[in-house]
Amino acid sequence: MISNTLPLGLVDNPRLDQWIAFDAPGRVGIKTGKVELGQGILTALVQIAADELDLAPERIALVSGQTNAGPREGFTAGSLSVEHSGGSIRLVAAEVRAMLIAAAAARLGCSVAELTIDDGAIIRHGLPTGLDYWQLAPGLDLQRKASGMVAVKPAHLRRVIGRNLPRIDLPGKIFGGAGAFIHDLRPEGLLHARVIRQPWPGAQLDDNSVADVADAQIIRRHNFLAAVASVEQMAVAAAEKIAAHSKWSGGTPLTDASTEPRWIVEQPSIDSSNSRGVRPEVSDPARRVKRSYAKPFIAHASIGPSCALACFDAAKLSVWTHSQGVFPLRDQLARALHIEVDAITVHHVQGAGCYGHNGADDAACDAAVIALSLPGKPIRVLWSREDELASAPFGTSMVVALEATLSPGGYPLDWTTEIWGGPHAQRPGAAGGVNLLAADALPNPPARPVPIEIPEAAGGSGARNAPLLYDVAHQTIINHIATDLLPRTSSMRGLGAFANVFAIESFVDELAAMAGVDPVRYRLAMTIDPRARAVMEQAVAMTPWDAAKAAGTGRGFACSRYKNRAGYLAVFVDVQVDEEVRLQRVWCAVDAGLVINPDGVRNQVEGGIIQAASWTLKEQVRFAEGRVATRTWDNYPILRFSEVPAIEIVLMDRPRDAPLGVGEVAQGPTAAAIANAVADALGLRIRDLPLTRDRIIAAVATEAS
């Protein structure tokens, strides 16, 4: 199989030596700009390289997320790592393997067809030749551009891809390897720091209110304030004392009203609209149906708070971070701190979970600001739980209003999706701005990013998954992006797809009920895409869809193709509902195309289902007295281990197709399936998330009255 187009990673980093090296005997260095965020990507990339090079996976030495040694690949986001980085590594490995065989043939005076590879050794007619990769590699020109024209291995010759290779990142995390988590790094001479935050955006620090702390050093730059000590507990105690005495004025307190998601509809916005298809002539207004759905602000709520280390030594700044984008972060640190990009090196070290633009970049900027004030000293900034829940960017609240004009049989002919939400694409470097908390507190802060919508061709953001999976003659998408939004929002797992799929798949269930048609059959009747039909049919085959249900229980279904071009997922759920919802069982069919590591895909989908269930049933950021009020697990609850349902997943067998991203494929369909199951159990529809006890009680009381 020969690629017609180069993956984006290879377009941006075209030289072979940006991806591969033979620096150590018996090992092949593979470099990637993508990073491990708990999704198992490094293991998948090792499998891809090992297969194309005919090597044991243990021979692959992977370098990930280092600005001084690896390709610049932007952010690890959007379920694109296998497609972009994996696709690039696959083509590079295939081409270098072909170069090595050609070099061996030239040295042996034989044809390429006579040679094979066995774990890096050159074999001729089944016998060793005494040559291997490491003898031949010095004669290769790896500085040339990759052609992308060398055929990669066909499916029947793969030996590593498709296997459940054990995750290469887990042993250190489970058994406590040095540096497995960024939180564990302890360089000699380490100083600990805690930052005292502005209570709300733009707040100004009263110069006379900063407490004098004898056992910690105070770092102050305009409205940036931190306590530094040689012992972490001393830094924490000092920061608490300083925070208790510090006085702030001005700025823009957060409004309590923004707790409720429908507040977003009233905010100033940038508006856009597009249509597709041919609008049918329908004059009967009785055939138009409108519904509106909403989700609140949600937090990343990582179990491990954000952490970073930095050291400024000999005019060079080194930063260790669990950021999703080490190169964009390096660029933004240079802008915010007014130092040259070439003077900064950013190293990725794994954190404890990442679901989008969390606090990792902010913690890195915190550490860098302090390191510049204390040259030669390694600085460690660990956020508190309160920092993590209150200061990291949120996933924006959203309202999705849907309107459909129906055929006499009850199927949509014309469809309008209208979306309100804050910005989703506010990562450091987005739209030319800098989105780093510490930078905002410094004198003359750089401009913040301008709210933008990622184009649909690049996956979309607020309107992600707004285009229908189903065959409808005409549809219109109207998008309102709130400007000057407080609180700060940015990328959360799935971006707008979570709310859009929740709304669309809930509305489709409502339309099916109005038409008196089984909700799965209703969807199949509107679905042309054969792969979408296949995942729906597989999900039906897995579950007792038509079986009788006990009182107080419900079953729901939903389906989506993430970004309308990545993985497909169809899901059934069973719930029990009384005063609150208990998710009991989940059945899920996934089409991920070529699956590199089946266990890794299942883990990603399971994690997405569990997180989506937590968002759907529990999570909501609240505001009071100008600040974020949900700062602890007590007032920002997440799904507990005891509440995790039984989950059954079937992966469709498509080894000859291209890999499809699955990292965020489960979020929206899971939410919609739960909402549909709750409606099935209660006989009434709740359209605002989360589906909490209070919301259920209120809905039942309203229905009864």
What does it look like?
- The chain has 16 helices and 26 strands.
- The protein starts with 7 loop residues before the first helix and ends with a helix.
- A hairpin with a 6-residue loop joins strand 1 and strand 2.
- The chain is an alpha+beta fold and 705 residues long.
- The mean pLDDT is 94.
- Helix 2 packs parallel to helix 3, helix 11 packs parallel to helix 15 and helix 14 crosses helix 15.
- The strands form seven sheets. It has a seven-stranded mixed sheet. A five-stranded mixed sheet has the order 12-20-19-18-13, covered by helices on one side. A four-stranded mixed sheet has the order 21-22-23-26.
- The protein has three domains: 154 residues, Aldehyde Oxidoreductase, domain 4, CATH 3.30.365; 157 residues, Aldehyde Oxidoreductase, domain 4; 271 residues, 2-Layer Sandwich (Aldehyde Oxidoreductase, domain 4), CATH 3.30.365.10.
Keyword list:
single chain, 705 residues, alpha+beta, Aldehyde Oxidoreductase, domain 4, 3 domains, 5-stranded mixed β-sheet, globular
Distance between the termini: 65 Å
Low-confidence stretches: none
Total individual domains: 3
**CATH fold-level label of the largest domain:** Aldehyde Oxidoreductase, domain 4
- The amount of beta strand, in percent, is 15-25%
Query: Biggest sheet, in brief?
Result: 7 strands, mixed
The percentage helix is 25-40%
CATH class wording of the largest domain = Alpha Beta
Q: Kindly report the average pLDDT value.
A: 94
- Relevant CATH superfamily of the largest domain: Aldehyde oxidase/xanthine dehydrogenase, molybdopterin binding domain
Per the principal axes of the C-alpha atoms, what is the gross shape?
globular
